Amino acid sequence: MKQMIQTLNAPQPSGPYSQGVQSGNFIFISGQDGVHPNGDSAGNTIAAQAAASLENIKGILAEKNASLSNIVHMTCHLANLNEENVREFNNVYASYFEDVEIKPARITIGSQMLGVKVEITAIASVN
């Protein structure tokens, strides 16, 4: 059985999808980009957009009493995949997972996106 996860602590879906879905012990989080929960852009830098994306993911997880430490896999999309952008992204990403003993498995890919530089999806495991 699956349950929709809906929160005001992340942007509302702009299309026909859920912010997140829990199925059994797993939470699947839709792509969160560099937009604040109120819909405003987080800014034009990789750092600002990465932080907003991760804050949105935290907000969705919190609806199920979960946190970043529950994440087992992340897919990270960067609009312009180059060394400088990956370094800037990794600096922000690392700061969010400093206290997480087992870091999530992850892939970072270059993607063509509309109006944002960062989008992140996540899969979490909960008891």
From TrEMBL:
- Stored InterPro entries: RutC-like_sf, YjgF/YER057c/UK114
Recorded coiled-coil stretches:
none
Supply the Pfam families for this chain: Ribonuc_L-PSP
Q: In Gene Ontology terms, what is one molecular function of this protein?
A: deaminase activity
Q: One Gene Ontology cellular component annotation?
A: cytosol
Using the record, list the residue span of the signal peptide; answer none if the entry has no such feature: none
Record CDD domains? YjgF_YER057c_UK114_family (cd00448)
Q: Which family does it belong to?
A: Belongs to the RutC family.
PANTHER family membership: 2-IMINOBUTANOATE/2-IMINOPROPANOATE DEAMINASE RIDA, PROTEIN HMF1-RELATED
The name this protein goes by in its record: 2-iminobutanoate/2-iminopropanoate deaminase
